[in-house]
Amino acid sequence: LVGKSFPRRQLTFLIESYAAGADTGTEMLQNDAEEGGYILEGQIELTVGEDVYQLGQGDSYYFDNNKPHRFRNTSEQICKIVSATTPANF
Predict the structure, then answer these.
(1) What's the Cα-to-Cα distance from 73 to each of 1, 7, 11, 33, 89, rounded to whole Å?
(2) Which of 2, 11, 34, 55 is the most core-located residue (most Cβ within 10 A)?
(3) Cα separation of 38 and 81, whole Å?
């Protein structure tokens, strides 16, 4: 059902790309959702609350977006991630 509108959808899928040195900003993100993802290529630093994780190709993550969080590519190569959030707030 490609191209159809789903006003009641509860899930969003994204393919995210972070260039070398890119991040989601200096302020930590926080919203009412759950998020999971899979690193397709490259590396990403994921901060959730006080915890910092270094993730690479083949790694996955899941967290409650109510916790302050941030993504940052500290490597010299692009990082690509497939992610999903629920509810669909993106």
Answers:
(1) 34, 33, 25, 22, 23
(2) 55
(3) 6
How buried is residue 70: exposed, middle or buried, by Cβ count under 10 Å (0-12/13-18/19+)? middle
Cα distances (angstroms) measured from residue 62 to each of 17, 33, 37, 81: 18, 11, 7, 13
Contact 70, 24 (CB under 8 A): yes
Q: Which pLDDT does position 11 carry in this prediction?
A: 86
pTM for the structure as a whole: 0.86
